[in-house]
Design a protein that fits this description.
The protein has about 400 residues and is mainly α. It contains 15 helices and no strands. It has a single domain, classed as Na+/H+ antiporter like fold (Up-down Bundle), CATH 1.20.1530.20. Helix 8 packs parallel to helix 10 and helix 12 packs antiparallel against helix 13.
Length: about 400
């Protein structure tokens, strides 16, 4: 029952405020920048301004008290984004193009996990929480990194810097999962090295890759080959492909594989089917719209929840976040791309623009529901502050740095 004819229902107030913040975040930057504005930082700050100081509103979506909401919403955003990231890549290219990616995944990400975990121990977290923090904050984000990735399907001209950042974002979310489980197993006192390597590393990664490839091939046949006289791709409906993403992710997770890897590989393989078909561009547009919708609401909610997390944000946590953005990731990125075909300035851009975002929210929410971690409120404060810092630093500079640097090759 309403508190009078014009009672303020918190849910409807949330819808009103979120809508206004999203419009302003995408509209206002166009008055000051000719680059495509990066709205993610403004969405968080707008959520803080709209909801952070309204009585009872931050508690409505507290990540500490209601992690399941954050887990499910961020999971949906990430799987759609990973599928779209796979679709973005027009050409798989040769080994030289993939060399920076493999370095970032096999060298850069473990170094980042180690660096953040050590900083976490220094900041007062226990071993399990520090390991989890390293795993949560190590992967770059496929959702918020659109400004540094390759363009939509069929555009061509994939610059090596953008290719490295795109392929890294597509794979490292899934590859960070073994380390998330490492933190969960340590927290639960159930860690066994053989089981962790055999099941959580080898089996789950392999099943995700193989399952995603099979699903992409099968969906490609359904979309582009059968029935030949009335192709599903000609209908222009992206809903069927999205349903295929959900089926792939669900089946892979039920089979104990990494669904994040599966949906990215599915996008890569599907993109190889009838590679010049216009449907790929329409499908990417459809998935990108869904991704942006879910992500925008999540970021506004994150901003609104910040006042709840501020009491747990001490100076050591702030130093940890700053060190990750400006020292740990750049150093790990530079070391892991040494010996690749990228020039030194290109390596510096790849190393610096490791955006943190929605994937970190998902991993922390998932882990919080799987084991007991000490100082979970401080973990949320660390992740939230790091995402805010990343969206401001990376989001506000990517258009003026990555854009000109990746147009240079085309101009020659």
């Amino acid at each position: 029952m309403s508190d009078g004819m014009f009672g303020l229902d918190p849910y409807h107030l949330l819808l009103l405020g979120a809508g206004i913040v999203i419009i302003l975040a995408y509209w206002l930057p166009r008055f000051v920048s000719t680059h495509e504005p990066a709205a993610s930082g403004l969405l968080i700050l707008g959520g803080l301004g709209a909801f952070g100081f309204l009585s009872g509103m931050p508690e409505l979506f507290s990540p500490v008290e209601r992690p399941k909401i954050w887990e499910l919403a961020s999971e949906l955003a990430v799987i759609i984004a990973l599928f779209g990231t796979g679709l973005r890549i027009d050409k798989l290219a040769d080994w030289s193009a993939w060399r920076p990616t493999t370095g970032l995944l096999l060298i850069g990400m473990p170094l980042t996990i180690l660096g953040v975990a050590l900083l976490g121990l220094w900041a007062g977290f226990g071993l399990a929480a520090a390991l989890l923090l390293g795993a949560v904050l190590a992967p770059t984000d496929p959702v918020l990194a659109a400004d540094v990735q390759v363009g939509p399907p069929l555009e061509g001209g994939e610059h090596p810097v953008r290719f490295a950042l795109t392929s890294e974002a597509g794979l490292n979310d899934g590859l960070a999962f073994p380390f998330v489980y490492l933190g969960i197993l340590v927290a639960s006192a159930e860690f066994a090295l053989g089981e962790w390597v055999g099941f959580y590393v080898l089996y789950k990664i392999a099943f995700g890759a193989v399952g995603g490839a099979a699903a992409g091939w099968l969906l490609g046949k359904l979309m582009f080959a059968v029935p030949r006289v009335n192709l599903l791709a000609d209908s222009g409906s992206g809903v069927v492909a999205l349903a295929g993403v959900l089926v792939t992710y669900g089946l892979c997770e039920l089979s104990e594989g990494y669904g994040f890897i599966a949906v990215f590989v599915m996008g890569l393989v599907l993109r190889r089917q009838e590679a010049d078909h216009e449907f790929h561009k329409r499908l990417h547009t459809f998935s990108e719209s869904l991704e942006h919708a879910v992500t925008s609401i999540l970021l506004v909610m994150l901003g609104g929840a910040l006042p709840l997390l501020w009491p747990f944000l001490d100076w050591r946590i702030a130093v940890l976040a700053v060190a990750l953005i400006f020292i740990v990731r750049p150093l790990a990125g530079m070391l892991s791309t040494a010996g690749s075909a990228l020039s030194y300035p290109q390596r510096a851009i790849v190393a610096f623009y490791g955006v943190r975002g929605i994937g970190s929210i998902y991993y922390l929410a998932y882990a919080a529901g799987s084991a007991e971690f000490g100082r979970i409120d401080a973990l949320w404060a660390t992740v939230a502050f790091t995402i805010l810092l990343s969206t401001i630093v990376h989001g506000f500079t990517a258009g003026s740095v990555v854009g000109p640097a990746t147009r240079e090759k085309k101009a020659k």
